[in-house]
Amino acid sequence: MTPGKLSTYLKNGAIWGFILLELIFFTVAGQFLSLSENAFMDAGNMLLLFKQSAPIGIIAMGMTIVMVNGNIDLSVGATYALSAVVLLDAMTWPVFGGLGDWVIPVACLLAVLTGTVLGAINGLIVWKTGVDAFIVTLGAMLGYRGLVFMYNGEQPTSHLNWTLVDFAEAQFLGLHTATWVLLLVTAAIWFLMNKTVHGRNAHAIGDNREAAVNAGIRVGPHMMINFMIIGALAALSAVVFYAETGSVNPNDGELYELWVITAVVLGGTKLSGGAGSIISTFGGVLAIQLLRKGLAHIGADTSTVNLVIGLILIAVLLLDRQLNVKGKEALKI
Amino acid sequence: MTGTFGEENLMRLRTVLAASAASIALSAAAQADGYRIGITQNNVGVDSYQTTYEQAFIAAAEADDGIEAVVLDAGGDVARQIAQIEDLIQQEVDAIIIWPTNGEAVIPAVRKAKKAGIPVIVTNSNIAEQGFDFIASFSGPNNITQGARAAEIMCDKFKDMGIAGEAQVVHITGQPGYTTAIERAKGFEDRLPEICPDVTVLDTQPGDWNREKAQTVMEAFLTKYDDIDGVYAGDDNMGVGALNAARAAGRDGIVFVGATNFAVGYEAMERGDYWGSIYQSPVDDAEAALQTAIDVLDGKDVPLLNYFDTPKITQDNMGDFTKPVF
Amino acid sequence: MATLTKKDIGGFLARQGILLAFALFMIGFTLANGRFLDPDNVMGVIRSSAILGVMALGVTFVVISGNLDLSVGSMMSFSTIVVLDLHDKLGPALAIPAMFAMTLALGAFIGFLVGYLRLNSLIVTLGMLSAIHGLTLTWSGGKNMDIADKAGTWFDVFGRGEVLGIPVPILMFLLLAVTLGTALAKTPFGRKIYAVGGNGTAATFSGIPRARVVFSCYLVSAFCVATAGLLQASRSMGSQNTVGQGLELEVLAAVILGGASLMGGSGTIFKTVIGVLILGFIQNGLLLVGLPFYVQYVVTWVIIILAVWLDIAAKRGRLWSPIA
Q1: Distance between CA C74 and CA C135 in Å, rounded?
Q2: Distance of alpha carbon A205 from alpha carbon A64, whole angstroms
Q3: Where residue A73 sits, what CATH number does that domain have?
Q4: CB-based contact (8 Å) between C132 and chain A?
């Protein structure tokens, strides 16, 4: 059922090869086209690359688990926005008036809790009704967005807490707070997927659900936990980003699901489930942000950026298929 | 700077050639005495105003040998805009011009630029007042005045029509949370009762600067209210959307007043369908922003709020204005 | 009658649940606001649903064949901008076929990738969503597109015209629905689409050319998108580049609401039309009772999940899923 080791390495290597290609291309092209005095590969620029990858990257880790399961979550953008609203609004609640700056961890916790609950709702519906995750989360994408709007009308929710901003802007060992969160989440999810029973089950369910059920895996609760993880991560991503901005518009996070899925697919995870690597997803996230940064670096305009990103996605899919075509054709049911 | 478009294009072509030659041959020398200015715009391509602004900005920057412009677009996404501000800080540009996607969310990023010693000029739509400490200047229209002037245009028309004692108005605002939208709405809502106390505002809904959304909002208004005498839209793009809805529903005699006169608004005024607007040129807007940045870098005394004038335009005086190019 | 069992009722509810829900909504809104069933209002709702509806018809074909199309919103912006631009350059009589040809070419490209190269339709159309937006911006230079001489053209007949008192958009929606509905239900081509969507591999073994069928479905979808773009352009005689943004999800919601399974192989044009109308009337009804537009998002969420749940519950004969 699983493709051979060699093709797995090829696939995992492919995204890093692509990143290398981007780095070379933008460095060379930047020499001629860029107005910047700094080289594209400047250390400061690369540190920013990690930081700027964090909001999409943190969610992408959750999406990888869900997709390995053979599911998908389209509601992450709305979950992200609703958690951000809770984060910023909770800091102004009179209940927490006496806490001073201790309101910050409380608000962060509440935000993550919100995301977890929203994920649990999706997971429970998928489990109990048997409706396809695509439909459940497409509905939730609308529904949760509606809740964001109902919270504060069409007005933005704002609360600027400079202590929180300072914390978010801080750099420890040269890395920004957001980068640390991204790295820690990546490490934790990598551990979960590769070193625990839960991770083994995730792959087993994605590979062949019937067989997993026969092997005694409780598929429903397992999937629900994964939806809770991605909900919590969407919320964590909101905490990381809005800590530094202090204001959320009700439309924020729209299309995030698409960018997250793009990053995960670039990393080689299959929409049909079963296969997927956390490290490659990390590569996929970097590749997209690098593409954006690079195109801006060489002065590409909005239309070119859209065109190039869309076509690269299709090209990668095509390439991926060519790499895998032999192993798959023989095994197709 | 105020040549016709043909001349500007020629000039642009010439300066592109000159600039590329210069950047290869003597980039270090050229940069030593010139300024490198970065701009991150809100959402180019979403409407003509923003696209024309970008073209005018590039043209103005290229017409000035001492300026190199790094032109970026946030695509309406606040996360992308903040990343662009960080990138510009990291590239050590001499000044940053921001067209904020969200007047509050960019404040910490603006503070970061100030800490790095880079002056920030806000263009077109201001940031929230909390951020005023961190900016060198705001360059753009006075949107409160614009809202007030729109109220005056509408009130005067109602008085002419003799319905100032009973008229009912609906109000379509721009994107919620966007400073321009908030200020225009405030200007209109404060001024209208002062001059036309008996006119009622029936309803206010956002049209998000989007013609289609405004059309949908207006369709709902027409369903809900049998008697609508006037529509104030936060810009002409939305105003024309509302006009389309009214025409499709066969409701005539409504007074439409907008802001930021678009070519479609100007044409609708020519046809007599649309009453008035506020004349605001994206070319002026872009050139003012660049000039403000240069003045700040030259060490000149620049006011914190650097407004350019935006006059009233109605069917009566539209002959005094050329048709907007966007 | 007395022997009506719980199971019968459940089965009936599940099969006709969507129509029942529709009826309940109509009654509720009528009670809440007498103007709801006013002929003018009903006509208005159908007219403003027509553009979404036309797109949903095409996407129904794609979904029945077992694929997705997330690019329809972006493609509709493209069609609208192109036909408006060409209107002033070539005249309406040439602009319309030229726009249809270009939109169909985009559809053919997607159909080739998904049908012949067997690439995943979700990712392909996601990529095309972005790429076509870039194409549109390149075409227009990012500017709004407006017809210069709005009074001197017959182009507005599609969006604003009326025949026998019925607005043309409604007529075109109906005409397309009947034509495509017949094609799907009564022709060999239609049966092949169900076969391919129901079980692609089996269809291939039984000699049905899967690739060509999928390719054709994307052509149908592109044709519907082009028609929607024409209606949109003609209705407003000018447009922003982002006019279709986000429509792909509303379209998909309508198709799912109509009961087409995303696994392929099921769904009908009639049910999609019902799905479109439900969305349109909910939107209108909520506005009429004075609720803001975003309440419809939450209502749509609940209805979609209930509708799909009841549908599959009827098929498997039990309410709760067998997942352990």
Answers
A1: 10
A2: 14
A3: 1.10.3470
A4: yes
pLDDT (0 to 100) of residue A7: 59
Question: C-chain residues within 8 Å CB-CB of B46?
Answer: 240-242
Range of the domain at A126: 13-20+40-327
Q: Where are the alpha helices (DSSP H) in A252-301?
A: 256-266, 278-297
Gap between the Cα atoms of A10 and A2, Å rounded: 14
Phi-psi region of C118 (alpha: psi -120 to 50; beta: other; left: phi over 0): left
* Confidence class for position C308, pLDDT limits 50, 70, 90: confident
Closest CA to A155 of C140, B182, C212, C152: B182
Q: Is residue A7 part of a domain?
A: no
Does A95 fall in a domain?
Answer: yes
For chain C, domain boundaries: 45-245
Count of domains for chain A: 1
Q: Touching check for A169 and chain B: CB below 8 Å? A: yes
3-state secondary structure (DSSP) of residue C301: helix
The pLDDT of B117-126, averaged and rounded, is: 95
> Which residue of chain B has the CA closest to A249?
B177
Q: Which two tokens stand for residue C133?
A: 């937006």
DSSP C105-139: HHHHHHHIIIIIS---HHHHHHHHHHHHHHHHHHH
Could you list the beta-strand ranges (E) of chain B: 35-41, 67-73, 95-98, 120-123, 137-141, 168-173, 200-206, 230-233, 255-257, 276-278, 305-308, 312-314
Interface test with B, best of C143, C150, C241, C282 (most B CBs within 10 A): C143
Window B:259-298, CB contacts with A under 8 Å: none
Rank A75-89, B195-209, B237-251 by mean pLDDT and report only the highest: A75-89
Could you give the CA distance from residue C17 to residue C315 in angstroms, rounded to a whole number? 13
> If you ran DSSP here, which 8-state letter would residue A69 be given?
T
Q: Is A8 on the interface with B (CB under 8 A)?
A: no
Cβ–Cβ below 8 Å for B47 and C144: yes
Picking from A67, A126, A136, A142 by the largest number of C CB atoms within 10 A of its own CB, the best residue to mutate is A142
Calpha distance B304→B310 (Å, rounded): 18
In this structure, is residue A187 part of a structural domain?
Answer: yes
| Surface-to-core class of residue C236, CB atoms within 10 Å of its CB (0-12 exposed, 13-18 middle, 19+ buried) | buried
A136: its two tokens: 């459940």
Model ipTM value: 0.86
Supply the DSSP string of B67-101, one letter for each residue. EEEEEEE-TT-HHHHHHHHHHHHHTT-SEEEE--S
Q: Comparing C-alpha atoms, which of C253, C236, C265, C193 is closest to residue C73?
A: C253
pLDDT band at C71 (very low <50, low <70, confident <90, very high): very high
Residue C128 has pLDDT above 90, yes or no: yes
Q: Are B282 and B49 in contact (CB under 8 A)?
A: yes
pLDDT reading at C65 higher than 80: yes
Report the pLDDT averaged over residues C125-135: 94
DSSP B319: G
Could you tell me if C306 lies within 8 Å of chain A, comparing CB atoms? no
